[in-house]
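Record passed on underneath.
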Amino acid sequence: MSGDGVCRLPFHVVAFATPLAVYRRHSDRSRAFDLTLFCEPARAVIDFSMPSPSRPGSSALPSSEQAEADDAIDSADSSDVADATEEKFRSGIQSIEVGFRLLDVLTNEPRAMMLRDLAQRAGMSPAKAHRYLVSFLRLGAVSQDPVSGRYELGGFALQMGLARLARVDGVKLARIALTGLRDRLDLTVGIAVWGNQGPTVVHWMESSYPAKAALKLGDVMPLLSSATGLLFAAWLPRSKTQAMLDRELAATRQSMADIEPVLAEIRTHGAARVEGMLLPTIHAFCTPVFDSTGDLALGLIALGQEGSFDTRWGGDIDTALRECAGQLSYELGYKPGER
């Protein structure tokens, strides 16, 4: 042992120089242990020196160089942690997404389910599904019949759904959705709801080439000569529409026997369409959006000029409106087949 704290042990090695090898090992505690091995042609120097008390694990560098090295390590570590955190945020938690498949199946299944059927529909083994269901049972997201062993959505799922419905604003959601639809189709679009005077336009967005339609916010649409009115006449309870229907039928000298086939056709197609009925050369679609009770919540309107407006059932405009209305109905809690 020399005065500098280095133990020097001579031994024979191969007759050529070996590069410096440095081994640093950090323990789980705050202290560290450095092992520096210098290999020379005739002897080896093994350094068992302890690290600097001010910086565990630091190497024997001049203080200024050591400080720069430590700063570089700290910076790299912070950057790695930040990158890892951001990546984790983007990637999400896969196990939650996997478990959610079980809740999705239960949401769309009208009856309680056995474990094997639920697992099969969710695309996982019964053993794996059971582990998720145990946690969901504890959280109240799922319930289990103690007699049959079948699984169903739990009380917490109901509370969460009711909280969502209490906060949702159908018109607000529709306004956001129609912005994208207008930009996508470049058509004049709008929203109508049933007001105290009848079907009322509450939102309107013009295309880049506005249709020559003298419509404005607050306008009440006729029941029998507009796509919007026909939609509400077809789906609303007759108790709401009968008085308005009677007035229009009397003005046009028609009877309910004349109009019922038209309303039945609208229900069959799932939307209303007119071609130049209310305004000459103006065609329009109106597609229903339903709420959680299956009632008509609002109508999505699209209209355009004759010659540039696709009036085909299943055409681009009809399809785009149906997709938009379907998504909005889902957001409002509607399940197809409830009507």
